[in-house]
Q: What sequence folds into this?
């Protein structure tokens, strides 16, 4: 089962928009040494929506080679087209990824039945372990707990990244799935409480910047050491907030560039962090010993 602090890794890019594979390798090595328990490559934080299918698969293949089995690699392969999601998931399986992460189809606003059929089609097409990903604030599509429970019966659907930040939603899902179904949050600000309430970990944006601190907080929470976990979380609470001061991954990519991993390059329509937020974020990075 996937658990603990999993990084939703940013994708460094050159000024011409190409992936900066040299900086990507440096980032991967950084996380291998900082207590991160798995890496998500080409997730939404990795600007997957701006990658062509060829670029997407190339990124997965090269990242897997760079990771070199030192950590599990989870490949972001979601799309709002089921056929495209199948092709990306097939690519992930062929490159050796340990699992895939599939965001609910965005913009289309499928019904709950549509979500079931979408994910079952992908699971039947590619045998690789698959994680569901529910983030209605970004997709305009909310996968309900009953739908998760139905999909949890599919053998190679092994968990969910549930990013609503709702403890009620976590409890509802937890009641309906088996103990071996991974319950991961995608909401950094509520990660500590999510784990203390029975979740298993996080696929985290904050962990891009303070991987060791995020890993420690998750481990304390998994051990049930609530006071210590909450104290560790309090140290990075302001970072959780400021990393979402503009749309993800704008702030975190700015932060990672300040740490020395690549320049301030993003693909349109994403833009560089507005100047009014740069100094406050820099101050928090310094306070968290990220710079």
A:
């Amino acid at each position: 089962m996937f658990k603990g602090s999993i990084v939703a890794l940013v994708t460094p890019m050159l000024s011409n928009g190409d992936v900066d594979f040299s900086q990507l390798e440096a980032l991967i090595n950084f996380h291998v040494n900082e207590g991160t328990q798995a890496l998500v490559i080409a997730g939404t934080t990795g600007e997957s929506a701006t990658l062509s299918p060829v670029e997407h698969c190339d990124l997965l293949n090269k990242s897997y080679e760079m990771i070199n089995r030192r950590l599990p690699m989870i490949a972001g392969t979601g799309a709002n087209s089921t056929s495209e999601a199948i092709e990306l998931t097939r690519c992930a399986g062929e490159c050796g990824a340990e699992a895939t992460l599939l965001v609910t189809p965005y913009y289309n606003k499928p019904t709950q039945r549509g979500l079931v059929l979408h994910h079952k089609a992908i699971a039947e097409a590619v045998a690789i372990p698959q994680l569901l990903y529910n983030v209605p604030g970004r997709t305009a599509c909310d996968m309900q707990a009953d739908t998760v429970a139905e999909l949890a019966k599919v053998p190679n659907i092994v968990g969910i990244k549930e990013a609503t930040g709702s403890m009620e939603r976590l409890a509802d899902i937890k009641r309906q799935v088996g103990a071996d179904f991974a319950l991961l949050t995608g909401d950094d600000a509520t990660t500590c409480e999510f784990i203390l309430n029975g979740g298993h970990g996080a696929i985290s944006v904050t962990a891009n910047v303070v991987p060791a601190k995020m890993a420690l907080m998750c481990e304390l929470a998994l051990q049930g050491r609530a006071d210590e976990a909450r104290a560790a979380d309090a140290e990075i609470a302001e970072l959780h907030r400021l990393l979402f001061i503009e749309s993800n991954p704008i702030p975190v990519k700015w932060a990672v560039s300040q740490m020395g991993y690549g320049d301030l390059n993003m693909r349109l329509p994403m833009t560089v962090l507005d100047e009014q937020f740069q100094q406050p974020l820099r101050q928090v990075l310094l306070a968290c010993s990220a710079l």
In short: The chain has a mean pLDDT of 97. Residues 155 and 220 are 30 Å apart (CA to CA). Residues 53-67 form the longest helix (15 residues). The domain at 4-236 is CATH 3.20.20.70 (TIM Barrel).
